[in-house]
Amino acid sequence: MIGTRLERARGRRNQGEMADALGVHKNTYARWERGQREIGAEALAALAAEGWNINWLLTGAGPERLDSLRQASGHDSQGLRQPDLIMAVQLAQEALDGDTLAPPDYAQLVALIYDALVHGLPSAQVIALARPAARGLNRESTRDEKSAVGGPGAGASGQG
User: Fold this and answer.
1) Would you list the domain boundaries of the chain?
2) Whole-prediction pTM value?
3) CA gyration radius, the chain
4) At what angle do helices 41-49 and 15-22 cross, to 10 degrees?
């Protein structure tokens, strides 16, 4: 759960101190930790600036810290480029247009966008590619949720 990983990133700071560091209200940060609200691009960028691996924060995959990624790859100067990461998260939010994705799907969308940006695609082309990808991931997430709740055709029972 993202909330558990945010608690780990918070360390010895209390929720108010962490909220201040991320530029949000304490209640907003508390909702992130409880899983009641999705964390935003600006907060993710601030956590990346502190050295946290955004992929780990969102999905639990990979090392916790960016310095671990750099050391493991042997490319200390070739780590994640923060401006591209910030742009990728912002473009992902724009592509979702108010929709939400499960954390693994959101991380996949951000990674796709980041890769396109790093390879030199202009933002306008990236967002043109990201919108259909976001819709596809959103449909998959919705289909998976329906299957998990009641299997195929679960919503067709006429309850209301």
Assistant:
1) 1-79, 81-151
2) 0.49
3) 17
4) 100
Per the CB < 8 A criterion, the answer to whether 3 and 44 are in contact is no
pLDDT in tens, 61-109: 888 887 765 554 444 445 677 888 888 899 999 989 888 888 888 888 8
Q: Are 83 and 42 in contact (CB under 8 A)?
A: no
Q: Concatenate the DSSP letters of all residues of 93-136 into one string.
A: HHHHTT----HHHHHHHHHHHHHHHHTT--HHHHHHHHHHHHHH
Contact 62, 53 (CB under 8 A): yes
147: left (phi over 0), alpha (psi -120 to 50) or beta: alpha
CATH architecture of 1-79: Orthogonal Bundle (1.10)
CB 81 within 8 A of CB 114: no
Enter the DSSP assignment of 137.
H
How far apart, in whole angstroms, are the C-alpha atoms of residue 39 and residue 44? 7
Residue type, 42: E
Provide the 8-state DSSP code for 158: -
